[in-house]
Amino acid sequence: MDFLIAIIIFAFSLIYSISKQISTIFPVILGMLAFSSVAYYRGYKLKAILGMLLRGMKKSLPLMPIFALIGMITALWRASGTIPFFVYYGTKILNPDYFILFSFLLTCFVSFALGTSFGTVGTIGIVLIVLAKSGNVDLYVTAGAVISGAFFGDRGSPLSSSANLVAHVTETDLYDNVKKMFITGALPFLASVAVYLFLSEANPINVTNTGLIEKFNLSFNLHISVILPACIIFLSAALKKDVKISMFLSLLTAIFVSRFIQNISLGQILDYMIFGYLNSDKDLTGIISGGGLVTMVSVSFVVLAASSYSGLFEGTGMLNDIQGALDKMSKKAGVYLTTLFTGLATCALCCNQTLPILLTKDLMGDIYKKNGLSKSHLAIDIENTVILVAELFPWSIAIGVPLATIGVGPKAIPYAVYLYLVPIMAPLTRR
After folding, report:
1. How far is Cα 153 from Cα 155, in angstroms, rounded to an integer?
2. Domain assignment of residue 340, yes or no
């Protein structure tokens, strides 16, 4: 009963924070205090509880440099013209008859390059929604295609904070995970292409806001060299180089391009790296501005605080009863379906991706071992379930922020077909 009370406190604090648009760090900390109180009630000393919390946090410390690099890279890829290049030339090759399909494919590419769904929706997503509005295209269908593409990279890019978190907590290789995500995601991707091809026929674009697109060319020098920072990441992924090294090299390249191609001063570049890129054009500032080290501070605190749960649950055995029930379920329904169920339950409760990743790993880890499945199996199953089903709940931050960014309501979720085709179809290619 004490554990259930702690869960209720945590759940209601999350719901309240979302409704009031308060940072999730506060309910996460409140949850940490609630579960710590359960441990204290069960007889654990404060010193022991603190040790468990710190051991949990310690597991996530290696992720902090990666998060910092992601923040700085996403700012300088904007400043250097890398993302504007993809947006400008991507929209230039747009075929009006296949606008919805194009929206999905372009956001897939940009999200894989950026590694963030929020950053993708906040850049190319806004552009595509503006085009849809001016061209009398169904906004919900367009938004669904954009959301699907945005989480294509959020799930499977080497720059994704969630992909790095999954690889870290499951003790698996990031690039090996990316490769396997492409394998298990290939069929859902092709099915999504077919769906969006069908939807494109009913939603051709009639008018395009070319003036907005041309502003990218006016604000940036879009020489082919500006894609070098992205090429570094793609090449490093192909060569399976250490992700921190590849990100650092990409960052150095972006600094060079920003300085000598975009003629930005070193002082301004440093400011962008810390506080995020800010475009001076009033029409572009809401689209292309963003990134920076400060944007990852909240994420880092949430991950550290959420990781403390893992140490507490492991040290006190709070999850044993739940694990027992899931173990029985896995024997009847299978390990993958049990993982999917766990992901749905934790995502519905936690309203984000971070905590469900950690909880699903803690709850299902031993079950995978008992069934002779590797850590790699667990990592890919989490990627194919938790990372995407979190967006199926309208109250989740994972989908709420992207929808608010492009000004579209939850009616767009049914059109985000990639989000549920992956969990449904992944078992067909699971090995």
Report:
1. 5
2. no
